[in-house]
Specification:
4 domains, six-stranded antiparallel β-sheet, five-stranded mixed β-sheet, 53% helix
């Protein structure tokens, strides 16, 4: 018979072996989990280092905020652009660093930051405001709730400077294109000024001769015998120089001279106002006066192809840069003249450019309509693209409308669009706010 004690020992040994086997399995599982956690930790550390290196290497300022807009971490060129250390930036409200957008633009939710790229200024403790282009994305938790945002601010100082230089260069290009026409406009009045001045000179010389002869009549009053002969000489001289004609025409010649001088003066004044770069600051200006100046400068571009209809309403001054807005108007008028010119070259006659201005509730609107052939539908979306043009070489570089759109929309907070009536013409709509939005 088997000893019961031995059976219990054997049973306990089997249980111990099973427990040891289970322990070995658990140990392997723990070892695997530990190894997996270690690998994950290393990967997280590597990912963190990688992301930190990515942020540090970015050429833009990167600011990560919490849901209240307070900066939790920074990267890229944030410290250099703001003039503050990373420690000083952390905890700062993002809105306190930005100039341009007002507080009401950004609160109560960070979603307002994500309406699309927008221009602003980043406050710098060293160099003053830095113009930047802001791009913002929201950070969300697993449930989709907003927990913060990533804001990237790209320094556009160089781009702003290039835009200014490009506008000035385009203005000079326009002046060059208009120079021949302006010279013609000045030359015509100068010619009749010269003719009138020469006539006045000749007439004055004749009158001087007549006065000399009149003075010889003095002895006649004293009974001189030569009196009858002198009177006959004077009569002959008056007949020869047609004294009545001189008396009638000299005032007209003087009036023509003064009118010609006034015309030359207005042309030169308008050209100076258009070509002068001026200040980059915005100041109140009368758009009606700018329109009239534009028509004076561009007259030779449209005078042989179109008549002008002006329907200028009572409008308030708008806050703008006169030189830039003059550039916009000159581009629109010249484009209208070129569009009409292509049509009348085939049909003959004159087209029409209609310019209207009117006050609206919060701004001023200007419409410039032409009777050209209209903008084809297939290029409608490309009209405001830089360097896009349908004109033959020498008539345009494709910068005019692109710069006009940038000036109106980006610099003045306005709108520039157009309607097309195929085969009948195009109407450009310019709208500017009375006051520039903050």
């Amino acid at each position: 018979m088997t000893d019961p004690a031995e059976e219990r020992v054997a049973k306990l040994e089997r249980r111990l072996e099973r427990a040891q086997a289970e322990n070995r399995v658990l140990e392997r599982m723990i070892e695997d989990k530990t190894r997996s956690l270690y690998v994950t930790q290393c990967e997280l550390r590597d990912s963190k280092v990688f992301l930190e290196n990515v942020l540090a290497s970015m050429s833009s300022a990167v600011m990560i905020t919490d849901v209240d807009g307070r900066i939790t971490s920074v990267g890229g060129t944030t410290a250099r652009m703001s003039g503050l250390d990373d420690d000083e930036l952390v905890g700062t409200c993002l809105f306190d660093l930005l100039l341009g957008p007002t507080w009401s633009d950004w609160v109560p939710a960070l979603e307002h930051l994500c309406l699309g790229p927008r221009e602003a200024e980043l406050q710098s403790a060293r160099s003053g405001p830095v113009p930047v282009l802001l791009t913002t994305s929201l950070l969300r938790d697993e449930d989709g709730g907003v927990v913060g945002a990533v804001c990237v601010a790209t320094d556009i100082s160089e781009r702003k400077q290039l835009e200014v230089e490009l506008r000035h260069a385009q203005r000079l290009e326009s002046i060059g294109q208009l120079a021949a026409g302006v010279a013609h406009e000045i030359n015509t009045p100068i010619q009749f000024i010269g003719d009138s001045a020469r006539f006045i000179g000749d007439a004055f010389e004749d009158l001087t001769g007549l006065v000399v002869e009149y003075r010889k009549l003095k002895p006649l009053a004293q009974g001189e015998p030569t009196g009858p002969k002198l009177v006959a000489t004077i009569d002959e001289l008056e007949e020869e120089i047609d004294i009545e004609f001189v008396e009638d025409e000299v005032p007209k010649a003087i009036a023509r001279t003064l009118d010609g001088i006034e015309r030359v003066s207005s042309i030169v004044k308008a050209l100076k106002q258009f070509s002068h770069p001026g200040e980059d600051d915005l100041a109140p200006a009368d758009l009606n006066q700018l329109i009239e100046t534009t028509l004076t400068v561009a007259k030779n571009e449209y005078r042989y192809v179109a008549e002008i209809d002006l329907e200028l309403g009572q409008i308030p001054d708008v806050l703008c840069n006169r030189g830039d807005l003059g550039q916009v108007l000159i581009n629109l008028v010249v484009n209208a003249a070129h569009a009409i010119g292509d049509v009348v070259a085939e049909s003959g006659g004159l087209g029409r450019i209609t310019i209207r201005s009117r006050a609206e509730a919060d701004g001023v609107a200007v419409d410039i309509a032409d009777t050209g052939g209209g903008i084809p539908e297939e290029i409608r979306e490309r009209v405001f693209e830089p360097f896009f043009t349908t004109k033959e070489p020498g008539r345009g570089t494709g910068q005019g409308l692109a710069l006009a759109h940038n000036i109106v929309v980006s610099k003045h907070g306005g709108r520039l669009d157009f309607d097309v009536d195929p085969g009948s013409g195009t109407t450009f709509h310019l709208w500017l706010p009375r006051k520039r939005a903050a």
